[in-house]
Specification:
homodimer, mainly alpha, Arc Repressor Mutant, subunit A, 2 strands, about 65% helix, DNA-binding
DNA sequence: TATATATGTTAGGCTTACCTAACAATAATG
DNA sequence: CATTATTGTTAGGTAAGCCTAACATATATA
């Protein structure tokens, strides 16, 4: 019985783990601020997440993730980061838009797709020869000018196609 | 005053344009079947979309898109197709998963990102020299073996980076 | 320590998007 | 053309996720 949670509940988990990282103590109002919702909404969400065994929270106390909640939160955060990387590094989308888009897309991407996308990023990041691979530089140029910037070597050497 | 519609309403528009393409006449039950919802839900949605001037629908009649609705539906369908292409062509995700993921992601991707992703696909599809670009073949191999398959030409010719 | 301020919870309401059941109109068929 | 089957609509209900207003607790300070 693998339990599922909604996108919105995923957002709460993600906010909690994010806040935990930089503040150690996580309070209802911090979560609300992070997500742009009011305290009663946070209280309600925490009730739901508690029932599912993802969060520990006693009345008026601070918020903790259970082991299970922590694991799930990390998965979501990882997906988020993968998407941001893709959007920024490959598509050259600005930080703000990239993270906004990632925030929404992270809930709709399947496990397998997330994995493959992550591989794709790794492939790019571990590119041999300097930083950005040649083909991506060629894409940058294609974007700017609509024209392809060919690798000079290929251009001069490959004729038969 | 640019009006916005919800993800779900986007799905209805998309279903309508999809059905229109292959059946000419679109009925409430077709939409319901396509989206996996019951007729009353479709009726309700059509009411909403009609009020927004995106759909024409008289009681017990068939469903049409207005000019505005058609335009919007096409935008959504385009985003969907772009995502499917990316997932299939770049990440090599199977048809079924790709279209499922795209169905969800198409609502969360921003306009600018959709455009850039589309450029990226075009860049790949219009690759000079045979079909799949070398760097993507290299990625395929990276996925399979964890190792990078270098372009032979670069390998032998390029030394200074 | 009494009180004020900040934070959290509860109660009750709203919206979206779904549902079932009951009813209405259209289409198909004896 | 009358009846049945199919399709569509309306009415009314549910769940998620948000809100405000009112109340409760905790914390800080006079």
């Amino acid at each position: 019985m693998t339990q599922t949670i909604s996108s919105n509940m995923e957002d709460y988990l993600e906010a909690i783990i994010f806040l935990k990282e930089k503040k150690e103590i996580v309070r209802v109002k911090d979560i609300g601020k992070e997500l742009g919702v009011k305290n009663p909404s946070v209280s309600e969400a925490l009730g739901i997440l508690s029932k599912k065994g993802l969060v520990k929270h006693k009345r008026y106390g601070n918020v903790e993730l259970t082991k299970k909640g922590d694991k799930l939160a990390k998965t979501i955060a990882r997906r988020h980061n993968t998407l941001v990387k893709f959007l920024k590094e490959v598509l050259k989308i600005d930080q703000k838009t990239a993270s906004q888009d990632a925030c929404r897309m992270e809930h709709s991407i399947s496990k397998g797709t997330a994995k493959k996308l992550n591989n794709f990023i790794n492939f790019i990041e571990n590119s041999p020869y300097s930083g950005r691979p040649q083909w991506l530089k060629s894409f940058d140029n294609f974007e700017k000018t609509g024209k392809r910037l060919n690798c000079r070597i290929r251009k001069s050497k490959i004729k038969n196609d």
